Amino acid sequence: xxxxxxxxxxxxxxxSIKRAAVIKQAGLAFSKRGYHNTSLDDVAKMLQVSKGTLxxxxxxxxxxxxxxxxxxxxxxxxxFRFAKDHPGTGAEVLEATLYKYIEMLTGELxxxxxxxxxxxxxxxxxxxxxxxxxAFEKSFVAMLQExxxxxxxxxxxxxxxxxxxxxxxxxxxxWFDPEGRLSxxxxxxxxxxxxxxxxxxxxxxxxAKPASRFGLxxxxx
Amino acid sequence: xxxxxxxxxxxxxxxSIKRAAVIKQAGLAFSKRGYHNTSLDDVAKMLQVSKGTLxxxxxxxxxxxxxxxxxxxxxxxxxFRFAKDHPGTGAEVLEATLYKYIEMLTGELxxxxxxxxxxxxxxxxxxxxxxxxxAFEKSFVAMLQExxxxxxxxxxxxxxxxxxxxxxxxxxxxWFDPEGRLSxxxxxxxxxxxxxxxxxxxxxxxxAKPASRFGLxxxxx
Amino acid sequence: xxxxxxxxxxxxxxxSIKRAAVIKQAGLAFSKRGYHNTSLDDVAKMLQVSKGTLxxxxxxxxxxxxxxxxxxxxxxxxxFRFAKDHPGTGAEVLEATLYKYIEMLTGELxxxxxxxxxxxxxxxxxxxxxxxxxAFEKSFVAMLQExxxxxxxxxxxxxxxxxxxxxxxxxxxxWFDPEGRLSxxxxxxxxxxxxxxxxxxxxxxxxAKPASRFGLxxxxx
Amino acid sequence: xxxxxxxxxxxxxxxSIKRAAVIKQAGLAFSKRGYHNTSLDDVAKMLQVSKGTLxxxxxxxxxxxxxxxxxxxxxxxxxFRFAKDHPGTGAEVLEATLYKYIEMLTGELxxxxxxxxxxxxxxxxxxxxxxxxxAFEKSFVAMLQExxxxxxxxxxxxxxxxxxxxxxxxxxxxWFDPEGRLSxxxxxxxxxxxxxxxxxxxxxxxxAKPASRFGLxxxxx
DNA sequence: AATGAATGAGGGTTCATTCAT
DNA sequence: TATGAATGAACCCTCATTCAT
Lengths: 221, 221, 221, 221
What we know:
Four copies of one chain form a homotetramer.
Chain A: H1 11-33, H2 40-46, H3 51-54, H4 61-85, H5 90-106, H6 123-149, H7 158-170, H8 184-197
Chain B binds a DNA duplex through helix 3.
C-alpha cells in the first residue's frame, strides 16, 4: 500500500492529487540532483510507492519533466499576473514580478519548479516549452524596456539582463535550502535587490563616489 | 583517418593537443546540452573520429567531466590572479575579477568551461572539485566583504550575492553564442555592469568616464 | 515470461531461489567453458530469461563469480566439518575429507562449484577468496602433516601434494558429466583412491624395489 | 626499436625466432594469468615491442593460443618418444613419461606450455587440438592398461586416472615458480611419486586393511 | 490501483585488429 | 619491419517501460 496522503475525495480528484504529487516530488529531485541523476525508482521510493505505480499517473518520465516545466512557467505566469495587479513604473513592476516569482519558486509549491533540463524533453514538448519560455523572457524584456522608456530604469541590453536574471534564478535550486538561514521571502527580497538596484535610476544608489575604473557607471549599460 | 587539425608537432605534443581537443569539444557539448544528453558517440562524431579513439586520450567519460571542471576552475584562478595584479578598492577588484572571468569563459578556451553537473563525477573527483569550487566562491565572498569594509560596496548578504553571480554565469553556456550579436568581452562588460552596479556605492552613476584599462568603455554597453 | 522453475513459496524465498539459480547456472557455465567465455547473455539464455533480468538477482558478473567461489569454498568447509565428525588417523581423516569434498562437488549443488578464475574478481573479493582458499589448503596440509606424524602417511612435500590434489579436483568440471558412466560418488571414491593410496603407509611402499631410473624413490617425496 | 634478442641469422630464421618468442611469451602469460586476462598489449609490453608488431609474426590472438596448445602437445609427444626409448614394465614406462612430461613443462621451454583454455580456439583449431589431446590422453590410458596387463599396476579406471593426472599437471602453472623452493625436476619427481605410487603394485597395496568407511578399497578403482 | 518481475534499448568500455607512415 | 593511432565489434550494465497478478 502506498503512502499517499489520503483524503476523502472523488476518485478523479484523488487521481489528479496523486499525479500532482508525483510531478512535484520528481521535480524537486530533478531540480536538486538533475533529471538524469534521478531515476524513477528514486522518485518512487520518496513517495513510498513502487515504480510501476507511477505509471498510473503519468505517461512517462519525459511527461513528468514536461509538467515540471509547465509548472515552473505557470508560476512565472502567476508572477506576471500579480505584477499586472500592482501597476507602477516599469521598475516597480519588474521588481514586483521578480520578487513574486522568486518567492513562489522557493515556496512549497515551487521549490521544485525550476529546471534547466530542456534537451531531454520530447521534441514536440521542447518546442512548446521553448515557446512559453521565450514568451516569458520576452515579457521580462518588455518590462525592462518599459522601465527604460518611462525613465525608471537605465539603459542596458535587455536580453542580456534577462538572461542574467534567469541564470541567477535557475541556479537557486542547487543552493536554496527551505530549512536554511534565509527564508524564501528574504532570498526573494535580497536577490531582487541585488539584481535590480543597479538598474533602477530613481535611487542614486549611494553617495557620490567616483565611478570605478572600469567605466561601470549607472546608465552606461 | 580522423580529422584532427594536423599540425607538425612532436608526437607528445600532438597527443596532448588531441586530448585537449577531446576535452574541449566534450565540454562544449556538455555545457550546451548537458553531460547526460551527450553520448561519447556524439563527441566522437563532432571530432569526426570513432568512439573508441577517444579512449586513446582519456580514461573515461567521467575523466572528461572532471577535466572540464578543472579547466573552468583554472579559468577562475586566472581571473583571481589577474585581479591580484590590479589592486584597488574591494569593488574594483571584484569588478576586475568578474569581468575577466566572464570574458575568459566566453573566449575560445573557456566557452566550454562552465558546468553544472557535479553528481556524475567520481566521488573522489567530486570532492576535489567541491573543494576548489568552495574556495573559489569564498574568494568572491571575501572580495565582497573587503568591499563592504572599505566602503566601496554596500552591505548585502555576500553568500547570496555570490550565488547570484554564479548562477548568472553558469547559465551563460546555454545562451551565449560566440558568433552572436555580442562578443564575449561585451557580454563580460555588461554582465559585470548589471551584477555589480547595484552593489557599488558611490556611483554618481553616469557622466562620461574614460575607458577602463580593460577596454571597457563607459556608455558602450 | 521467464521459465524459472515455479514453486509456491513466499516472494522472498522465490527471490533467493532465483538468485541461487542464476549463480548455479552461471557457475556451471563458468566452470565448463570459463568465466570470460561465458557472457551474461549466455547465462540468461540458459535460464530462458533476458539479460536484464539477471540484474534483479545479482549486482554484476563479478558478484556471480564471487558467489561461485564462496559456494565452492563452503562445500570445502562442509567437507572439513564432516571429517571432524569422523575422527581417525590422519590418513583416514584426509581420506574422508577428500572423498566428501569431491562427492559434493559432483553433486547437484556443487557441479558448478570449482573455479579457477581468480583474476577477474574484484580486488577486495579476490583477497577474501584468496584468504579462504589459503586456509582451505592449509587445512589439507595440516591433515597431511598429522598423518605423517601419526605414521599413517609417508613423508611427502605436503604443499606439493595439496597442489596436486587441488589440480586434479579443479580439472573435474571439464570432464565430469553427471549423466556419464561414473556417478559422482564413484568418481569421488576412485579419485580419492588414486590420490591417496600412494601416500598411505600400511603399504610398505616399496620393498627393495630399486629406485626408479629417475631418482624417484618410493618414500622419498 | 624492439628488443628482440638479436642474432645474426637469415631473415627467415629471424622471423621464426621472433614468432616463437611471441608465442612463448604469450603462452607464459596465458598459463599464469589466463588467456582472457592477458591482452596483446601485455604481451607486447613484455617483449618491449609495440602491439602492432606482433601481427608481423602471428595472424591473430587465437593463432597464438593454438600454437601454445600445439607446443604443449609437442612436449607431450616428446615425453612419449622419450618413454619409447626407455622400455620397461607398463608402470616404468608411465613413470618415465609422466616424469619427463612434467619436467619439460617446468623447463624453460615449457613453463608456458600448459593451457586450459580450449573454448577460445577457433572451431577448426579446437577440433585439431581436441584430437591431439585425445590421442595424448589415450596414449596415457594405453600405458596404464599395459601396466595393468603386465601386472605392474593395479586396476583402476584408466580414464579417470588420466584425468586426475592431467588436472594435477594443468594446475601447475598457477603455482609453480621456477625461482621457487623446488626445481622443476624435483617437482616432476615428487608429483610422479604422488600420482603413481598408489597405482604401482609391487606394493601389495592393500593387506587386509579394512575398507574405509567410504567404501574406498584399495584396488577397487 | 499497486506491485514486482521482466524486458530491451542505449550507452560506456575494452581490446583485437587494421592501416598509414 | 615497427609503430601508434584508429576502428568497431562485443559485452557489461542501467533504467525507463511494460505486464501479469
